[in-house]
Predict the structure.
Amino acid sequence: MDKLIARRKEVLNKLEKENAETAQLKVEIDESQKEYKKLVNEQNKLEGSVSELEKEHKRVEKEEVKLAETQKHLNSRLKKTEKKEDELRTQAGRGAGLAGRRFGEKAEGSTSIGGGGKISIGVRTSSGGRVEGTFEGERFGEDQGDIWKARIIGNDRGQV
């Protein structure tokens, strides 16, 4: 009988140890499940952030395409404007030379293009006269070629 009691105590002790270990394992499982849930929530948040970043990236790419098209358009307009300015400078230089020849003198001319497409000329003749004017799209006369309206300042008078 003592053996039976001893055996029973032994089995009870073993069960208590196993129950204690089981309880400890349940606590560890609960902690692991809580940690797992936290990680799953964090992963969901990160996936949402990645999705938002992908949308933002697509939007930025579209914006870059629009900017590239705008830049191409502006470059085209700039080239056309530069070409027109060159044409206007050529006309202004021709007009300055013709103005000097009209008075039978050597003339040196300078031109500058300002805002609104206006071109200013300045011509100095060998006698000290000066021709100044602004081209505003009005020609002086067909027989004069590309001479535009200008006024004479200094020793010479009249219009070129």
Notes: Helices lie at 2-102. The longest strand covers residues 107-113.
